Amino acid sequence: MASISALLGIAAIALGMVLTPGPNMIYLISRSVAQGRRAGLISLTGVGAGFLVYLVATAAGIATIFAVVPAVYTVIKLAGAAYLLWLAWKTVRPGGQSAFTPKALPEDPPRRLFSMGLVTSLLNPKIAILYVSLLPQFVDPARGDVATQSLALGLTQIVIALSINGMIVLSAGSIAAFMGRRPLWMRVQRYFMGAALAGFALRIATDRSRAVIAA
Fold this sequence. Notes:
The protein has nine helices and no strands. It is mostly helical.
């Protein structure tokens, strides 16, 4: 079983990541504002399913591929950093909009909401980095089955991520209405989100660490 310190460590990382704006947060906010809380919650179940896919893959040892073939890990890391930089530019560019700006999006059926949440989660470089590079470092083979420890650590991340994102979904409409009456706040939120995305992208791109696998 994973140690308490390992669970607290991954919990702290998960909290920091979920509070940093990224693809999941942007998608959930935009869908909740455009189509309502129910649509946001359905999308959130898709995001959660994406977390489970990563968790099962990590527990099965697929992260070993990235340790054995470092070039694959490097390509994914740089692609993820480039994607976050693109999101940052979309946010701060002239004419860019806040995630809380109401948009005339077409109403998607539940199946599409779920599938888009799933795809967004699977393509989220923040989550890929967490499961491929960070989570394995908290696994201690001396404490027993590696897969069981990975599951416990991953479930900790999932509970935290879904809890925070769930609160964001439920409050997105109210936040959008609040900011809509205060253009300055909306502008500040845009630049804060853009700076956070760019900072995380640069941190990923310049990180010299490699995926560490506890086997």
